[in-house]
Design a protein that fits this description.
Mean pLDDT: 87
Shape: elongated
Strand content: 15-25%
Largest sheet: 3 strands, antiparallel
Oligomer: single chain
Low-confidence stretches: none
Radius of gyration: 20 Å
Structural class: alpha+beta
């Protein structure tokens, strides 16, 4: 309901003041969040980063397999396993398959970085 109200206010500003007024309003509302996003890791695509790392270092492409889906349709939970060839490397969970895959990729990156630090390379 709050999203509907925000959309209505933004639409009213656009209709009354045009694109510039609506753009200014939205920038004022979201600029602090956008600036903070990189610090909080909100803009990181872990799947892409992992694929780049594994192709460069290991010459393989990670694959993802849905392990579990549970909960009612309006509140699903997904668990995904990430594999290098046939070996499971990590798992991730989330409210969407994409989110679960991102979490699995994030865990795999941590595993790879841990291996790098143990072997003294980076």
């Amino acid at each position: 309901m709050l999203a509907d109200a925000f959309e209505a206010v933004t639409g009213a500003i656009f209709l009354d003041g045009g694109y510039e007024a609506a753009s200014s309003f939205l920038n004022g509302q979201f600029a602090p969040l956008i600036k903070a996003a990189p610090d909080k890791g909100l803009l990181i695509d872990h799947k892409s980063r992992l694929q780049e790392l594994t192709q460069k270092r290991l010459h393989i492409v990670p694959t993802y397999k849905l392990i579990k889906a549970s909960g009612p349709d309006h509140s699903r939970s997904f668990t995904v396993a990430l594999f290098f060839d046939e070996q499971e490397i990590s798992r991730g969970s989330g409210n969407t398959k994409k989110e679960a895959e991102q979490q699995a990729a994030r865990a795999a990156i941590k595993n790879l970085e841990g291996m790098d630090s143990q072997h003294g390379s980076r």
